[in-house]
Amino acid sequence: MPTLDMPDRPDLDSFRRQARSLQRDIRAGDAGAVARLAHHHPGGVPDDLSGLPLAAAQLVVAREYGFASWPRLRRYLATVAEHGWVTGLGAVSAADPADEFCRLACLTYGREDGPARWAEARRLIAEHPELTTEHIWAAAAAARPDDVDRLLAARPRRAAERGGPFRWRPLFYLVYSRLDPAVPAERVLAVAQRLLAAGADANEGYLFDALAPPFTLLTGVFGLGELGLRRQPRHPHWQALGRLLLDAGADPNDAQTLYNRMFTPDDTHLELLFAYGLGAGDGGPWQARIPGLDTPARMLRTQLRWAVEHHQPDRVRLLVEHGVDFRSPFEGRGPAWAAGDGRTPVELAQLTGDTEIAGYLIAEGATPPGPDPVRELIAAAFRADRAALDRIRADHPGAVAQARHTRAGLMVWAATQAPIETVTLLAELGFDVNAYGRGDAPVEEPWETALHHSAGNGNLALTRLLLDLGADPNLCDQRFGATPLGWARHLHQMATAALLEPVTANPASDH
Description:
The chain is built from 29 helices and 5 strands. It has 511 residues and is mainly alpha-helical. The strands form 2 sheets. Strands 1-2-3 form a 3-stranded mixed beta sheet. It has a two-stranded antiparallel ribbon with strand order 4-5. The radius of gyration is 26 Å and the shape is globular.
């Protein structure tokens, strides 16, 4: 796993400087630099540091950024130079009116996404309908086939030219546009067909903020993401447009699409992608450009883990029916929210108290887990099964202390995924109501408290309960520096905000 974050605008020279600086520091015996060498270099620390070769320092730097070797880092940086894009551009007004229209009309996967931007784009194009006549990127974003036809007839290579505020190609503006939810399908499909016929690449994509996996055309078509359906909706004609791109050769193994759509239980995107070979093949052109991307099989295993942990039984069934491995433990490298911690899917289902998914997996051939008092205790709490809890505590007196030690942030996960009674039970078992954890995945990462999530989700009953149990309303989360009141206000949860205002130390400044 990487220990350093990729900068917004990475370039090879900056990494070369880092490697040379590290080499000098190691040769000088700097303790921190030597520790980095010991941690990341397979050969360890040599007896004589004075002659450390530059290649050794380059390998350390590459591994700190999550790459197996310096050549792989160099190859990735070349891909970023060709396909990189900075999401911050979405917040920067463009001087050219046609560029500004494109900026406002399209999803950028930044914090600015939302209906207000698209309404402003509609106002702009209504006032200046001529913006699309000489600007193929605006013509694509507005889905105007006549303008696209005329511009391509004059210069067919425009289909593959980058331009507009983001330096995207025209087809990208079309599929990321959210200008008009009532745009006729025939206009959208006509523009897509014209551009593809003129040479547009159905697998076009960009590395947003230099990060893999790429946001592809399919990613834009299927939409959604961390900001939800309202602010990052799917394209109005996502099924027809997605099918058109897949017919044109778009690879269905689209990791960013799978991530963006996993937060809701709707499986229609998976059904379409499975019809075109999701889970098979070699990963397509992006796997060739970035060899470290997950394989199709690994992508789907990650989806399975999320579905099991987030009580999505229909998705679990769909994945199992399409051959996804549901028997093996999750091992090896994985994203922080889907760690390779050695647990099997059925163990995870039992751990979250989901007897439906656990029973289905066992019926399909998964091996029932052996006894584990800690797992059984947590599962009983998530089922709000007091009788089972009492039995486990009587038979295994040390299980509670071990559970508190290994799952210190469990209260946060419970606040987002379990019935309210589970929070009460965990508090009775001695779990810290003010512990930091993650609410999106059952992993130990100190992000925020349970009260942050109950406030941000507008759960008035849970917020009251947490306050009664001793939750501190003045604790700030570790990512944004906001209190629970700040979360409630930011997410427009006025009921929980009103409850927290009188008990927050400085409510006026917490926005």
